[in-house]
Amino acid sequence: MSFVDPDHIPNTGNAAIDAHHRRIAVQVNDLFDAWKAGGAPTALNSRLDEVLLEISDHFAAERSLVRGAGYAEWDTHEPIHDTMRERMGSIRAAVAQASSHTDGMIDAFRFFEDLIFKHEFFDDQDFWDAFAHLPRRGGEDLISFGPEHRIGRTAIDAEHEELVRLLNGIHSALADGEPEPLLCIRVQALRNAAITHFTHEEDTMRSMGHPDLKEHTVLHRVMLRDLEDAIHLCREGRRDDMKDLVSTGIRYWLLDHIAVWDRRI
Question: Which of 106, 146, 209, 225 is 20 to 30 A from 22 via CA?
């Protein structure tokens, strides 16, 4: 018996957040099964680290997505994440120091219960209304790139404009019923452009000694994973799921990332 059924986690209305929740649930189940089977402490530690990193990445991404969707109270939701981050640190330290994994792992699974069955069912409902609208029509761009999206660095602004152009092209292609092979090429082009852009941004920030580099890199990593999900959905012909991910996930991430994070460069 698994720890949690990913299919029973409620949908928030944001395809990216929902995919993150399911991925966390799968990783928690894998850790639970390994623990029940008497896995070696080193292997359990490694699995626990993977789950905690996934959760931490998700918290960072969720903030960007709900803020990008226009949720005004995101700053009141963030302290809940901060408390959970502190608890994750305590759990990891307790597991590392314990001579037996029993007590530490029990605390870990109590935390996962709170995260999956309380936080995702109740706390996250605060921002569900931000996603409760129909996706934009095919003839309308997801993002109209304008002066408000420029940060004042010519090369980065040009890369942002290209990312927006590619995203709008995918949205239009989905609405027009473009065949999967061509559609998948579009998504791969967006992923490749994102990799190039993220590398450029991170190199720029590294050369500046920018204090936001670590968190900025986390957000890049999460977006690349979401783009990989979009490619997977495209290859499986799951157009409706892909449309949701593009219109409520990637779109909101990009809007927030440019407006908030990239303006700090």
Answer: 106
- For the CA atoms of 79, 83, 89, 95, the dihedral, rounded to the nearest 10 degrees, stands at -150
- Quick check: 184 and 234 in contact, CB under 8 A? yes
152-173 pLDDT tens trace: 999 999 999 999 999 999 999 9
Q: Of 60, 2, 55, whose CA–CA distance to 257 is shortest?
A: 60
Tokens of 56: 């931490």
Contact between 230 and 242 (Cβ < 8 Å): yes
- Confirm if 16 and 245 have CB atoms less than 8 A apart: yes
Contacts of 201 (CB under 8 A, 6+ apart): 156, 216, 220, 262, 265
- 242 with 133: CB under 8 angstroms? no
Q: How far apart are CA 167 and CA 116, in angstroms?
A: 31
Q: Which of 233, 202, 221 is closest to 53 using CA atoms?
A: 221
If DSSP states are collapsed to H, E and C, what string results for the chain?
A: CCCCCHHHCCCCCCHHHHHHHHHHHHHHHHHHHHHHCCCCHHHHHHHHHHHHHHHHHHHHHHHHHHHHCCCCCHHHHHHHHHHHHHHHHHHHHHHHHCCCHHHHHHHHHHHHHHHHHHHCCCHHHHHHHHHCCCCCCCCCCCCCCCHHHCCCCHHHHHHHHHHHHHHHHHHHHHHHCCCHHHHHHHHHHHHHHHHHHHHHHHHHHHHHCCCCHHHHHHHHHHHHHHHHHHHHHHHCCCHHHHHHHHHHHHHHHHHHHHHHHHHHC
Model confidence, pTM: 0.84
Distances in whole angstroms, Cα of residue 9 to Cα of each of 21, 163, 253, 260: 8, 32, 22, 30
Cα angle, residue 228 at apex, residues 224 and 229 outer, rounded to 5°: 115
